[in-house]
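Weekly structure sync, notes
Attendees: PL, DS, HV (note-taker this week)

Item 1: Melanotransferrin-like
DS walked through the input record. Source organism listed as Scleropages formosus. Sequence as pasted into the shared doc:
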Amino acid sequence: MDKCAAMSRSLSAAAVTPSVRCVAAESPTDCALKLRNNEVDAFSLSSKDIYTLGKETTFKIAAGESNSDGEGTVYYAVAVVRKDNEVISINNLKGRKSCHTGKGRTAGWNMPVGYLIDSGRMSVMSCNIAEGVADFFSASCIPGANETGDPSNLCQLCIGDETGQNKCASSDKERYFSYSGAFRCLAENTGEVAFVKHTTVMENTDGKLTCSGPQWIGPPHLQGALCDQYFHGTPAGNNPAAWAAGLSSQDFELLCPDGRRAAPLDYRRCNLARVPARGIVVGSGVNSLEVFNMLDEGRRHFNMFLSEPFGGKDLMFSDTSTHFILAESEDYKLWMGPRYFNNLRAMDCSSKGKCSDIPLQLRWCVLSHGELLKCADMAAAFKNRSLTPNIQYARFNQFGPVAPVVCVFVTVSLSLQNGDADAITLDGGFIYTAGKTYGLVPAAGESYT
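Item 1 (cont.): predicted structure, written out as tokens:
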């Protein structure tokens, strides 16, 4: 509140418009409520909080915060492998050993697991994500994944501290914790893939690599200013730990979504998600451009990215930001990017561990007596494994060559009137008719390989 009041006075003295009036709130959730009730017009939120806000409130994005790179990006979430492990790709990670920064963290958990789920590579039943990860990877080190109900192989690769204690702790007492820890897990050949941020490889390799001078061993066109931009002003390759000695960035590669691999510096093209910096949220009736212009002009009269004098950190805006950038889209989904949004949505479960959008039951349309019997057995098998939703079958009497068309019609027409079926298996020709005529969409495809 003190920082906001000081900013308001400074902007008023400089005749920056519109004027700023400060409204106290207890939390981002309280800010969202006040925005919905037209008690506030604007505030800054992390991209994760903006995603959450988007499920409950209508708003616009006026601007984004950015550091000196001008991208409005915190970092890129990447998957790193050893270059000499030539067979591994994003398409064959199942059954591999994985290294993560920690359970619930963005680069090491939400982005990679969300990506694998959203892309159909990882299957998660009943929104039990930890179980899905345990089934997908053969063994992992995921610090913090030692809560009641977490499968044991999620911490199998963790090593704890120097005495062997604190294994899988969600702190630096676990040597494989956070970005450098997850990379160490890979570098020591404990795991086969590490999920980290885009600067992690270069920060832990190439000895005393600097951004200029004779010690530079990277591509010549990345020396100097571009290197400084890459590391956002932080020293490169200065990890003095014994495990990092002798590591070369050239011995590691990134896994790309298209199945290819790339050098660590090619992170903009080869990543699992771009993680946006904080965004400026405004009400639907507020002029976004006016808010951006006010902030852009106002920062010349007041240091909006300094919180220490007011007794806190990241007050109102992030302390690591340097300026604001006009949002390319007022739609928060487009602003944050489809991959980041989809990854978060794939991880979006309620506090009770159930997916918020999973129905209690799924009614499957069967086309013959044989399908009815098979569907009943499938439903029983799913129920025995506690899989949701519960499968029920909806039988229709008309069988034969035209039965799929009849079932599509019944499914669509009755679903509009709380009907009897939700899903059906069709071949390609009938799928075309289902989409064109009745508006159905494919949920999954069968594979013959």
